[in-house]
Amino acid sequence: MRYDISKSKAPAMPALGKGTECIKILLSQASKDTHEPFVPMFFPVLGAHISGTEFLYPDNTWKEPTGMMANLVAKSGDNKGQFPLIVEAICRDFRKHDDAEEKKYLAWQRLKNTKGANKDKPEEPIVAYWFPPIDTTKPAFLKNAIALEACGGRTQYFNLPEVEMADQLCGGHKMVSLMLRNIYDRARTGALRATTDGVTGNPIVRACITISSNPESTRKFYKYELTNGTFGRMVFSYKKPRGNYDGKIPRLGKFPDEFYQKLDEFLARLDICKGRFIIRPLNKLIDKLAQDMATLADLTDDDVLFEMSHRSLVSAWKAGCILWVLNGQTWTKAMGELVEWLVYHDIWSKMQLFADMLGKDHDLLSEAQRRGPKNMLDSLPDTFNEAQLEALRTSLGKSKEGTNAQLRQWTCRKFITYSELTGLYTKTDEYLKGIKS
After folding, report:
1. How far is the C-alpha of 202 from the C-alpha of 326, rounded, in Å?
2. Distance, CA of 169 to CA of 175 (rounded, Å)
3. Sign, CA torsion 431/432/436/437
4. Is 353:397 a contact under the CB 8 Å cutoff?
5. Which residue from 96, 53, 79, 115 is spatially nearest to 322, judged by alpha carbons?
6. 240-259 pLDDT tens trace
7. CA separation for the pair 78, 29 (Å, rounded)
8. Can you give the pTM of this predicted structure?
9. Is 42 within 8 Å of 342 (Cβ atoms)?
């Protein structure tokens, strides 16, 4: 495994090489301290530019690069405000489209108001927004989804500056879990009911969402969503507080014409991509990462981490599909390295923010106390006995009863061997040379 997510320091992002030029262009307009936390946030915005396109996931299901959701988490005043500037740059075509839709709707309203009560009213036009306002309500969200489906299945995109704004979009906090899961799973949602305007629809919900929030509000918002699947569907990108204060004001991008020209060339590739595709190198990578996640879960004896990793893989895979389109439908090693990092960065962020809340109920830990999953085998000497593992498990709050099962699992995976003569377990060369590297 390339990354150790048990440490408080974030996994270092790999160098952005061939095939990641669009990401480098976007980062050129952000201060350096925001580069790593911003990268996962770019993909829901970019994914909203693709419609009428499906990709084959390794489980043989076809998925669209929609339903992508990411939450940027950082302390107040830690430069989260740079992200909306880049969003607006990416979504200039969305704004232009929505302005035209707004004018069409206002023209219809004016014409309707000129008609008397007994005269024929003009039919209400289909108005579909690509980048709706942040104060959109659930009924408006669903109405827009119906319009977007009628217009060919376009994705609507939301950038919420506060996590609490998701309550209004979803119809209240109690509905957040269901709505976000429907968005992620591209499910049909709504209600078939008769109204004065006709029969409402039950559209496929195609949406991408980015959210910005501070750690405290994030933990409070997702407190009751950690075990129902909603939590895993959201990609988290955590920016740890600064360790020192250098007194330098972060420099924002100037967004020159050259930047927009290069960016628009990449966005055009997303807009014109249609059809069904299989990206075999990406699927091979995801299969490998799935094995790595299983290995990590065995080493940490952490079922929650394993379950959480399933959707981290899907989210990173969707990001890989977007990179493939941006790169002219070709795959590179650097793109694979970035996809791999996205998986680990998401899980690391979740564990940094919620590790204490995912375990047994107890008082909230301080930020310095929260850590990711611990590789227990790595914490043991190369040769050890059962009692040493039992003591380690106890120190980590795990049960003594799980010791034998964990030893059997490690032996089955050929991480360790057992000597009946000495009663000791020894780490294998395969583990020492492979897993730890």
Report:
1. 32
2. 9
3. negative
4. no
5. 53
6. 887 566 667 788 889 999 99
7. 16
8. 0.86
9. no
